[in-house]
Amino acid sequence: MPARFELPSDHPHVALVTLDRPAQANSLDPPTLRELAAAWRRIAEDPEIRCAVLTGEGDRVFCSGMDMRTTIPLSQRFARGERIEPEEFEALRDVATALLAGFDLGTPLVCAINGHARAGGFDLMLASEIRYAAPHATFALEEVALGLYPTGNATVLLPRQIPWVHAQELLLSARPIDAERAASIGLVNDVVPAEEVLPRALATADQIARNAPLAVRETRRGVREILTLPLPDAYEHQEALGRPLRKSRDAQEAQQAFVEKRRPEFEGR
Question: How far apart are CA 231 and CA 239, in angstroms?
Answer without folding.
Answer: 12
